[in-house]
Specification:
The chain is mainly beta. It has two helices and 42 strands. The chain starts with a strand and ends with a strand. The relative contact order is 0.10.
Length: 526
């Protein structure tokens, strides 16, 4: 194997000059504003802005941010046609003694080349002076490398009616937006005082926090203005508060129970009068917030259930219909190549209740029998085969009829699978060394370009070297999760409990892994 030491480098590129004549790169210039820019004691209901050339408004509904927010979006005309001016018509009642900022982002562009007038603002005050202080900071994502675009950053005035729930009920006093390209933010024209600093990926664009759809970020303590501080806000998606969804029958002898929030602690109990031989099983639907309730045939028109978690208990009635039965289906959960580190497994759409290993055989490419055992996992819907997997091998798995039996007593038919492993030279390796690692336990993860975890190592106590073998040639990212609560998974934050998400650190460069190469990387933690 070749060994490669990767060093961080910086590449510079020069911008070429296009041929065919000079291109207009000059943005429009504001010639006149009526009322004038920076007007105090503002009482108008309309504003006219005039430019030195024909302009068009691009994506004005997203780009225009008004601070403080208006209940009614201002009417701006003309739109869709070039003009040397446009009018802003205000329908809202403006607050007294308040500085208003109309931030147009990059919506004002010239008609010919589309050159934007970047971050053009029109400012006025309904009072006797213009507030001139500002709050600056940076947006990042708690888990992903890049934050969302169009993130709304908000200030709420700290007063006697303050509570953390203000983000659910009231619009902020000041607001800005990162638009489609920025991570840094600045809320300008702020008056001196104390504020709550919050940010939202506001899916509904209503300046209110919706836990189901929005990401949120918060600074733990009130901030004071003026201040030279630069605030780092980490966006995270909260786990929804628990809620039971009305169940429905989806197949003969199977009912689905949806829920919001976490699975832990949910209890489903049938409370209808039932025969002594009635049996049931509960499994989680993969990748969904749904539980399957499998039950033996019963001659009733409906079933009554309680669904509870902690102190909250709901009662539901499910009317039963004649539906098609689920039929046993066994599927290979892995790709065409058998992994050298992840045990081979089969998935079942119905919980399995029995396995007969005497009706299963594994042979290698020399037709030699391979010793193995099996384990049922994931609510008895995953059958894992445990055996020593060698590189450059071909395995044949044979399963005779009745090797598997499902919850309804139905047995499997003959099943056969051919499993191939790659040679060691088909894989690459990452040797990772941590420098300045002080916080443990940690989870060290290798992800692909989609952010999907390809491998991970958990370190409960100090460990400086980590070996990731059998990596397919591809581009990978390295990240470290500080596992504060020792549960071996990344935990998001909780806004009302003022709990920030667990810290995630990304290695600054992508690692391009080639076959039969070893990459030695040093990650210096900050």
């Amino acid at each position: 194997m070749w060994v490669v030491i990767i060093a961080l480098t910086t590449n510079c590129a020069k911008r070429g000059t296009p041929t065919g004549g000079a291109k207009d790169t000059i943005p429009p210039v504001l010639l006149d504003a009526n009322p004038k820019q920076g007007t105090t004691n503002f009482k108008n209901k309309s504003i006219r802005l005039t430019f030195d050339e024909f302009v068009k408004l691009k994506d004005i509904q997203k780009q225009l941010i008004v601070s403080p927010p208006l209940t009614l979006f201002p009417d701006i005309v003309p739109q869709g046609v070039p003009s040397k001016y446009f009018d802003i018509k205000i329908s809202d009642t403006l607050k007294e003694n308040t500085t208003y900022v109309f931030n147009f982002g990059q919506s004002v562009t010239d008609n010919n080349e589309g050159n934007p007038l970047p971050f053009f603002k029109y400012v006025f005050s309904t009072g006797s002076y213009i507030d001139s202080l500002s709050v600056r900071g940076r947006i990042s994502d708690a888990l992903e490398q890049k934050p969302d675009n169009f993130v709304t950053v908000m200030l709420y005035e700290l007063n006697e009616s303050y509570s953390d729930s203000v983000v659910f009920k009231e619009r902020p006093l000041y607001v800005t937006n990162t638009l489609d390209s920025l991570r840094d933010f600045e809320i300008s024209n702020v008056k001196a005082g104390k504020y709550l600093l919050r940010a939202l990926k506001d899916k509904n664009s209503n300046y209110l926090y919706d836990q189901k759809s929005d990401k949120i970020a918060f600074w733990e303590e009130p901030i004071s203005v003026p201040s030279d501080s630069v605030y780092e806000l980490k966006l995270f998606k909260e786990i929804n508060n628990y809620k039971a969804i009305r169940p429905s029958q989806v197949a003969s002898n199977r009912i689905q129970f949806g829920y919001e929030g976490t699975l832990a602690g949910i209890e489903i109990n049938p409370i209808s009068p039932l025969p002594p031989d009635f049996k049931y099983a509960i499994t989680k639907e993969p990748k969904k917030d749904t539980l399957n309730f499998w039950y033996s045939p019963v001659d009733v028109d409906s079933l009554l259930f309680t669904v509870g978690k902690e102190q909250k208990i709901d009662t539901f009635t499910v009317k039963l219909k004649k539906l098609k039965k689920d039929s046993l289906q066994i599927a290979n959960t892995q790709s065409s190549s058998l992994s050298l580190k992840i045990p081979f497994s089969l998935s079942s759409n119905i919980p399995l209740v029995a396995t007969d290993i005497s009706k299963m055989k594994i042979f290698d490419k020399d037709t030699l029998s391979v010793p193995f055992d099996v384990t049922l996992k994931d609510d008895n819907r995953k059958l894992q085969f445990n055996f020593k997997v060698e590189p450059s091998q071909v395995y044949r798995l044979q399963m005779l009829p009745e090797a598997l039996t499902d919850f309804y007593g139905v047995s499997s038919d003959t099943l056969q699978y051919t499993l191939r492993t790659k040679s060691l030279s088909d894989y690459g390796t990452i040797k990772l060394k941590l420098s300045n690692a002080k916080v443990f336990p940690i989870i060290v993860q290798i992800t692909n370009e989609k952010g999907e975890v390809q491998d991970e190592i958990y370190a409960e106590s100090f460990q400086s070297e980590f070996l990731f073998e059998y990596l397919d040639p591809a581009k990978y990212f390295i990240r470290i999760i500080e596992d504060v609560n020792n549960n071996r998974v990344w935990d998001t934050g909780n806004y009302l409990e003022k709990l920030q998400p667990e810290r995630v650190l990304y290695y600054p460069t992508v690692v391009t892994v080639r076959a039969n190469w070893v990459y030695e990387e040093t990650f210096t933690l900050q």
